[in-house]
């Protein structure tokens, strides 16, 4: 993690959210279980841009409005990604839990302008080399192996045993790592900790271990390239250095694994709890594709994303934004903005959600398509193999992880008729 440097640190100016006495602390049980209600309350009190407090009562703005998130992400000249602009650095300890998100790194996430386009172009072309039909076949094979482990028991916990495991195996395979083994398991666990730390976890240390493991992978692929994303990035004519590939590969894996796992699990929860999908999921009148899309609108895996930093003083949603202010993109709040969904109706056929963000820094094409292949194949294969799948608990007993960033269940217990392999 690169030190942001003291030259960019100065006290929060008057008018920034640090001086808002009614700023909301992001987090807590209410936010964990019913974030949509929290977003509605914030809109009523503050409008489309709300003052909030991050871990350690660090001030920021939460952008809740759909139009406002679109505006921020479309105007990099006003709201940029280089976090060294932040005027709060002198108040941020080195072990701050959100440091993996905001501590400046020389990665595609924090680059701007021509350099960002160069780095994003390498990722895009590497991802375009992934054959979607082969990926679907691989994901189906992975799903079959995972299902075989619990099909005979009649019960399963799908979050850890299926939804988390499938994209993990698919992503590491695409990147040229072995799909099993202690190194791979540790890498995936460290990615989870850095993205969605539980109590007692050390996200900064976990993020450092991710970097170490990927440096070894890049070294191995530099010596012996193969038909994988890592090798394609290394061999790209843009000539990225090994460290640049490590940084950008970290972003690719982190963006693909944990969010896709939550997308799968959140979609399964919808299918198993919403009567529109029938008494059992095999008889539903709505398709798996519609359920996947509705999940992105109502329970998007990445709830909030930090962030953007104001390049200069400006106005947003009726708020005075000062140069160096931090803005959190409220993707979940924007997706349920009543300005775009009157009467709270969400059309499952509409794909204009912001779950993959927007603008130059959105998820690079074709990443959303690959995530859809993984999620759709996972859900469809599970329902085909276990057609009478039902929840093993009451819907209200399902618990969400205590994260304001990722939206995912702690567990999804199910039961079904045992299948003899």
From TrEMBL:
It comes from the Bacteria. InterPro entries: Cyt_P450_B, Cyt_P450_sf. PANTHER family: CYTOCHROME P450 YJIB-RELATED, P450, PUTATIVE (EUROFUNG)-RELATED. Belongs to the cytochrome P450 family. This is Cytochrome P450. It comes from Streptomyces atroolivaceus.
